[in-house]
Design goal:
The chain is of the alpha/beta class and 318 residues long. Helix content is 41%, strand content 19%. α1 packs parallel to α8, α4 runs parallel beside α6 and α9 crosses α13.
């Protein structure tokens, strides 16, 4: 994982490629094209690029109209605006009629480049999980982000794609991404780390730290948060009988909650949720934020050891 690439750049390249392949794809931007990398599409297809300005709610409505007449609109803004600011318009004009609009939430989670609590989207997964007809995708790296962009373009219903801002570790040489499918990256019976999005590289490093103590962890990467690959989640839980979930989002109603809900119904398992602990964060360098809010590989490994110590004597855990 030495190479660093930005998901937003990979997305921009993929969207431009899709524009060459399909003349029905259009892009709508809320005055952030250089940041979201919609600029790649705008430069190549100016007649299919619509700059709506700082008017995200209007952008969602325009996209709904374009989808209703057969276009495939991609709309983009920062994730905090792509969720909370346009929730009513998405709910009424896109989700309820099930229109084929792709909502791109760039700058997701905490790692937004010192923009602070107003721009850190730690509620977006919760919002879209609760909204019918919305699929949620959170790739782990730039390679998967590019594959996911192509996949959602071919998917006939509304999708929310969650992308981080800065260059991050690349963990895949290539991606076989499919909507609704989770991926087993590592096998072990000491504990199961189930992660999504940018936290999957963290899970892999944490698994390396645990292995130094003779604790082999299962690592399951879940790029599609909704619909959740319940069978894969249950299989990962069965591997060890203990689960730690990882997300860069509030622990309430987010990815960890989705995993916990699935396991409570299918295979009740002790589950510890690592994420933002129901607090707004602050402006700081990314590494400082990860450290303060307990989202580093060291924190994950420590929590896993504590979870093993607490539940390791459970009959099912061996």
């Amino acid at each position: 994982m030495s190479e660093l690439q930005a998901m937003r750049v990979a997305f921009g390249e993929a969207l431009a490629d899709l524009g060459r392949r399909n003349s029905q794809i259009v892009a709508l931007d809320a005055d952030l094209a250089p940041a979201t990398k919609f600029s790649f599409f705008a430069d190549e297809f100016p007649d299919r690029f619509f700059q709506v300005g700082v008017a995200e709610q209007n952008m969602a409505g325009i996209a709904a109209g374009l989808a209703a007449v057969g276009f495939i609109p991609f709309i983009s803004t920062f994730a905090c605006f792509a969720s909370c600011r346009i929730a009513d318009q998405v709910r009424t004009s896109i989700a309820q009629p099930g229109l084929n609009v792709k909502i791109i939430g760039s700058y997701s989670g905490l790692l937004t480049g010192k923009t602070g609590k107003t721009h850190q989207a730690i509620e977006d997964i919760a919002l879209y999980r609760a909204m019918p007809n919305i699929t949620i995708v959170a790739p782990a790296d730039a390679v998967e982000a590019k594959a996911a962009t192509h996949a959602i373009a071919a998917y006939p219903t509304p999708v929310y794609l969650r992308l981080t801002r800065d260059p991050a570790p690349v963990i895949f040489a290539e991606s076989s991404f499919e909507i609704g499918k989770a991926y087993l990256l590592r096998e072990g019976n000491a504990i199961s780390l189930i992660s999504t999005g940018s936290m999957t590289p963290t899970a892999l490093v944490a698994a390396d730290l645990l292995a130094q103590d003779g604790l082999e962890a299962t690592v399951l990467h879940v790029p599609t948060i909704k619909p959740l690959d319940v069978a894969a989640v249950v299989a990962a839980a069965r591997a060890s009988g203990m689960v730690v979930t990882l997300e860069e989002h509030n622990i309430y109603a987010g990815f960890g909650a989705a995993v916990t809900e699935a396991l409570s119904a299918e295979y009740p398992t002790p589950t510890f949720r690592i994420g933002v602990q129901d607090t707004f964060a602050e402006s700081a360098p990314n590494e400082s934020l990860l450290e303060k809010y307990g989202l580093t590989p060291r924190h994950v490994a420590q929590a896993a050891r504590q979870w093993i110590a607490r539940w390791g004597q459970d009959e099912r855990c061996g």
